[in-house]
Amino acid sequence: MTLRTYIVEDNATIRENLISALQELAQVHTVGSAETEDEGKAWLQAYPEQWDLAIVDLFLRQGSGLGVLAACRDRLANQKIVVLSNYATPDVRMRCAQLGVDAVFDKSNEIEALVDFCVAHGATGAQGARERVA
């Protein structure tokens, strides 16, 4: 199954490399991307059934990935949200967990773990249940 992924990342080089790597290694189809908190929140909330996974950076050109995460708390049960950040400190990981994030990956050394997460999520039937996460 192809995993429909939305990416919130303001660095174009990182975003494009991530899209290419995930498509090749994990059968991920990127349905869209945003560079700012407002763009990310607007798309994810406007198209609640058009994505299976959101990958969110915390430090954005405008706003913060934390705002995107908070806006996605009421999502479908099968949808996953992960953080991909250069600042995956224990405090950041704890704050992300409080916001309901499914996983946090460090950009510098956990890309393979992100790929593995995508493969596993795609294999579990990303388009399964449609009830909301509370």
From TrEMBL:
A Pfam family: Response_reg
**Response regulatory domain boundaries:** 4-122
List UniProt keywords, sorted A-Z: Phosphoprotein
**Transmembrane segment boundaries:** none
Q: Extract one GO BP annotation from the record.
A: phosphorelay signal transduction system
Residues annotated as signal peptide = none
Could you tell me which residues carry 4-aspartylphosphate? D57
Q: Which domain of life is it from?
A: Bacteria
**The protein's name in its UniProt record:** Response regulator receiver domain-containing protein
